[in-house]
Amino acid sequence: MAFFKTHYYGGIKKYQWLTIPLALHGIVCRADGQRVEVSIGDRPGDPVFTITDLLPHLAKDQMVKKLTEAVEGEQLNLLAGGLPLQGGEKDAAVKMNILTLLHQNYGITEEDFVSAELEVVPAGPAYDVGLDRSMVGAYGQDDRVCVYTSLRAILETAPPPAPRWRSLSTKRKLAVPAAPACRKIPAECRGGHRLKAPSPV
């Protein structure tokens, strides 16, 4: 089998990511300078990825661990495939088959992953939850609901005397300085009070 190494960020419950359908989204910058958008797992007929787990009868030691220790971050490797490339090297035939498929479909090579920004997310659309359809079931709702409501508030207010803006950025949970684009947001005036642009964390 061939796996993609991953690195999680944010406060996730790692055990929730096992054995569910996962999709891969992002951008790969190829060596020739072309940006390639990658989206696998959310369109009808797409294959999906998953993170494997132990079968119940093999998980005796795992089952007695605390939830925070039962699944380690290093175990969250994405199952990418299991068929070997015909005529490929014995120890790398499955990997070569996956790389061949990626090159055929996206024109990318193994070296291009150095300049890639890819995210693994639960596959599938958002769903109405409950018989009364009163809730939404989808990943990332904590951030998305804030973005949606703040945007609606801006769009539905009367024309303000001064510009109003909302800063949205990703990777906010990483312990690194704010994105360069955020640091360059110009100061604006609102209601006669000057707002300071975000500074690095």
TrEMBL record:
EC number: 3.4.11.-
One GO cellular component, as annotated: cytoplasm
GO BP annotation list: proteolysis
Keywords: Aminopeptidase, Hydrolase, Metal-binding, Metalloprotease, Protease, Zinc
Gene Ontology MF term list: aminopeptidase activity; metallopeptidase activity; zinc ion binding
Keyword Membrane: no
Pfam families: Peptidase_M18
Presence of keyword Disulfide bond: no
Xref: Gene3D superfamilies: Aminopeptidase i, Domain 2 (2.30.250.10), Zn peptidases (3.40.630.10)
Family: Belongs to the peptidase M18 family.
UniProt name for this protein: M18 family aminopeptidase
Upper lineage: Bacteria, Bacillati, Bacillota, Clostridia, Eubacteriales
